[in-house]
Amino acid sequence: VKFTRSIQSYKAVLTNRNFILIALVFMVGGAGRGEITPVYLPWHLERDLGIHVAFAVGALSIIQFGGLAGPIVVGWISDKTSRIGVLRASLVLSAIATWFLAWIGADILTMVVTLLIYGAFTHSRGTLTQALIADSVNSDEQAAAFSLYFFLGFFSVPFWALMTGYLMDTAGFGVAFSVMGVSYLVALIVMMF
Hints:
Order of helices and strands: HHHHHHHHH
Low-confidence stretches: none
Radius of gyration: 18 Å
Structural class: mainly alpha
Distance between the termini: 36 Å
Number of helices: 9
C-alpha cells in the first residue's frame, strides 16, 4: 500500500507542469550553485589577480555570509509579495552579480561588496524554488516532489562542473563566470513557459 502510494505520488509530481518548470530552473541555473564557485574563485583571485591567498580563501566566507542573509531577506520578501516575481528578480540579480564578479578586477572593497551580493542572490534561488515546490504540490506529494527536485537539480552539477572547468582552462575565469551568469537568464526564460 505504501509503495503504491509512493509510485502514485511520483507520477503526480512528474505530470505537474509547475514542478517540472521549477526543477528545470534549478537545473539550468545550476552553473551558479555553490559547488562551482569554491573550486575556481580562490584560484582566480590568487593566480589571475595576484590577491593574497588568505583573502582568496576568505572570499568564500564572504560569499557564505551573503548566502546566510540573502535567503532570509529574499524569502521574507517573497512571502510578503510574489514568489515568482521575487525569483525572477533574484535570477536577474544573480546574473548581474556573477558578471560583475567575472570582470571586477582586484579592487578589494568593490570585491567584498560584490561577493556579499553574489552570495545573497545566488543562494536565495534555492530557497525560493523550494518554496514554489511546496506551493505547487499536495502535501501527500511533497516527499516525492522534493526528492525528485534535489535529484534533478544535483544531477546537473557534474555537467556544470565540466563545462566551467573547460571554459576556465580554455578561455579564463571571466568567460567561465559570464556563462554562469547567462545560465541564470536561461532559467528566467524557462520560467516564462
